[in-house]
Design goal:
With 702 residues, the protein is an alpha+beta fold. The protein has 20 helices and 26 strands. Helix content is 39%, strand content 23%. It has a six-stranded antiparallel sheet, sandwiched between helices.
């Protein structure tokens, strides 16, 4: 099913066109030219990085040129075009190969190596051509900005103010280059704010500069200046808050407060600049400030995208290790809102009949109560998305009221303004769940935001489908394993027994772990727990054969010390594994233990800590040719024996001894519980294994 979405609103570029139109003949020609058939495309589609660099270029008091894209298309101010002589009238919009072929190699080097270069002119005038890369919001170089200036020792400067103007323009260009370089290296939003607060005052000659960053859909602003960082609410009566809230420039008695916008027109924050004195050329100051704001906006947007990518990577990583539907839902409710900056998440899934169950994480009880009677045919958005597979975006509560007249709006009552419901579809594109969340301040959702929502939905869908298939495979393996491992658990009088087998959770792994209980004469019980190396059908086949032979040898009265070497003599060495065999005699009050490479069983006596039953060393199963040591231990009323395979205690991220210690710690609090409860507790508390688990618990009931 194709997801639906409202188209994002186009950016307001009237201010940008006005700045170009007031930038001499070159600016007016650029605004009036039809760019649709050129490599740059229509003027309205030019990216923010191109717009910002072009404003800086056209308003530079010194000759400046912008070379854009792989073709290095020329956009230049009047001063630079004049340097080209008669050819300057035809140079705008043409590639560098046609305008200045000798410089193509150098300009391409700047574009690919992303470093600033300076080159002296060849005419002996002292002219310096400085070129630096222009990067987009993602940090990728898209063009080259070249400025031209005279330096001391070159041709005599014109007398009077022109010389000062030239030096001033050069300092501004150098300052913008420093700001752009520092911002491009800033990897986070806090780092961007710190750069702006540190570099901008000297660049614009301000007494004070403050910059605020807004989080989409949230009320809080992060404000940074020379004194540090503080939090501010969008509703506060301060210029920075007003510029963000009203999305407009706020004039100040001693300065200006500009909103910082991305390419879609969304306000990312605000820049507040205050001067102690006025200047004769306020227009030039405003042009410089617009250029600074453009660079800040690009850096904030780049930091926002970087943070979003990191959050999505963490979200995907957490989903990748979930093993059940319950775990997946828990991660979705916790991590998806973090990746989206959203709040109040809830996930709806079909329940019995037509009922719908809402899963949530710390939703207000009053809000949860409004969904107690939710059914699949309910008109509310979360049920509708679950029913139809439609993505529902409500940008504000007026939109909700218009689409659902007369319907209660609990999300709005609990502070949400923009709300979204994402349908989660199965492999057949049928809705299986619906994920809802919102933002307390209206959030404009543009193309990249919608793509992010689609990514979140896709990750959730894939994981839910994976754990569903894994659960189905696991149930199948459990049933098959039960057929192979069926063993009576009644046992002789005086013993309480609990057995468990749990296959590996990763894939269709019909493994080689097994247990067996064999009733012997005189009220004795033989217990066998083994583990054949490997998974899949081969290991299961080896296990079935070994189990049968060991069972037969024990029933035939073969002493424990001889069971394993006899097994090798009968089957050869075509397999490898471990095994534990015990004969428990409740009447005599003792247990005999023989072990070949297997984990030691655990013995718990009344009032004493758990202890391992130690036996002599032996080669692993399949390699034993000599009799193995047999250990006899007392086993009286109330005592507990626990035999298991290594899947119960082995983990990739911990030492084996730590797993054994954890087993002992879990056993102690439940030692007096029924053996079935003890078995369930061990499998629950020691979950997370990548291997099969077999478990036998025996209590001397007295």
């Amino acid at each position: 099913m194709t997801r639906s979405a409202d188209a994002p609103r186009p950016p307001d570029d009237s201010r940008w066109r006005e700045l170009l139109s007031h930038a001499g003949r070159a600016g007016r020609r650029i605004v009036g030219h039809d760019w649709a058939g050129t490599p740059l495309g229509p003027l309205a589609d030019w990216p923010p990085s191109l717009r910002t660099a072009l404003v800086v270029c056209l308003h530079s008091p010194t000759p400046a040129a912008l070379w854009w894209g792989p073709e290095l298309v020329l956009l230049a101010n009047d001063g630079y075009l004049a340097l080209l002589g008669p050819a300057g009238t035809r140079a705008l919009g043409r590639p560098a190969s046609a305008v200045w072929p000798e410089a193509v190699a150098a300009l391409t080097g700047v574009l690919t190596a992303t470093r600033v270069t300076c080159r002296h002119g060849d005419d002996g005038t002292g002219t310096v051509f400085s070129s630096g890369p222009v990067v987009d919001a993602a940090g990728h170089p898209q063009g080259v900005l070249t400025t031209v200036a005279a330096v001391p020792g070159g041709a005599p400067a014109p007398p009077g103010d022109a010389d000062g103007d030239r030096r001033h323009a050069l300092r501004q260009a150098e300052g913008l280059a420093r700001l752009a370089g520092a911002l491009s290296a800033a990897g986070s939003r806090d780092a961007v704010l710190d750069v702006v607060g540190t570099v901008t005052p000297g660049l614009v000659g301000a007494d004070r500069v403050r910059v605020a960053a807004a989080t989409a859909g949230a009320w809080e602003l992060t404000v940074t200046d020379a004194a540090g960082t503080v939090e501010l609410l969008v509703t506060d009566d301060e210029p920075l808050a007003r510029a963000v809230r009203e999305e407009t420039t706020v004039p100040l008695p001693d300065g200006l407060c500009l909103p910082l916008r991305d390419g879609t027109g969304t306000v990312l924050g605000a820049l507040e600049v205050r001067w102690g004195t006025l200047t004769a050329d306020e227009a030039a100051r405003r042009i410089l400030l617009d250029a600074v704001a453009g660079l800040c906006s690009q850096a904030l947007r780049r930091a926002e995208l970087t943070a979003s990518a990191r959050a999505m990577a963490e979200f995907a990583a957490r989903l990748s290790v979930t093993r059940s539907t319950g775990e997946t839902i828990e991660v979705i409710l916790d991590a998806a809102p973090m990746a989206l900056g959203a709040a109040l998440p809830g996930l709806a899934m079909r329940d019995e009949g037509r009922r719908v169950r809402l899963w949530h994480a710390e939703l207000p009880s009053g809000l949860v109560a409004t969904f107690d009677d939710l059914t699949i045919d309910d008109p509310r958005p979360i049920a509708r998305a679950l029913r139809t597979g439609e993505r529902i975006i409500l940008r504000n509560r007026a939109e909700f009221a218009a689409r659902h007249p007369g319907l209660p709006d609990p999300a709005g009552e609990y502070g949400m303004v923009t709300t979204v419901v994402l349908p989660l579809l199965d492999a057949s594109r049928r809705p299986i769940a619906a994920l809802g969340f919102g933002w307390p301040r209206e959030r404009a959702l543009h193309d990249d935001d919608l793509a992010l929502l689609d990514t979140v939905a896709d990750l959730c869908e894939q994981t839910l489908e994976r754990v569903r298939l894994a659960a189905a495979e696991h149930n199948l393996v459990t049933r098959l394993a039960g057929r192979l491992r069926t063993s009576a658990t009644i046992g002789p009088p005086g013993l309480e027994l609990a057995t468990r087998y749990q296959p590996a959770m990763s894939g269709l792994h019909l493994g080689g772990d097994w247990y067996d209980l064999v009733d012997l004469d005189d009220g004795r019980l033989a217990v066998v727990v083994g583990d054949v190396v490997g998974h899949q059908v081969e290991a299961a086949a080896d296990m079935a054969q070994l189990r049968t032979v060991v069972n037969t040898l024990i029933r035939s009265g073969v002493p424990l010390a001889e069971v394993f070497p006899r097994l090798t003599g009968l089957l050869g060495v075509g397999f490898l594994g471990t095994c534990l065999a015990m004969v428990v005699d409740p009447v005599a009050g003792q247990a005999q233990v023989a072990r070949v490479g297997h984990p030691h069983p655990v013995l718990l006596r009344a009032g004493r800590p758990p202890e391992m039953v130690w036996t002599g060393h032996s080669l692993p199963l399949g390699l034993v040719r000599d009799p193995v040591p047999v250990t006899t231990v007392a086993f009286g009323p109330g005592d507990l024996l626990v035999a298991y395979t290594d899947g119960l205690v082995e983990r990739r991220d911990q030492a084996y001894d730590a797993g054994v210690t954890a087993l002992h710690e879990v056993l102690v609090p439940v030692r007096d519980q029924p053996v079935e409860v003890i078995a369930d507790t061990l499998l629950t508390k020691l979950s997370g294994s990548d291997d099969d688990q077999a478990l036998v618990i025996i209590r001397h009931a007295g």
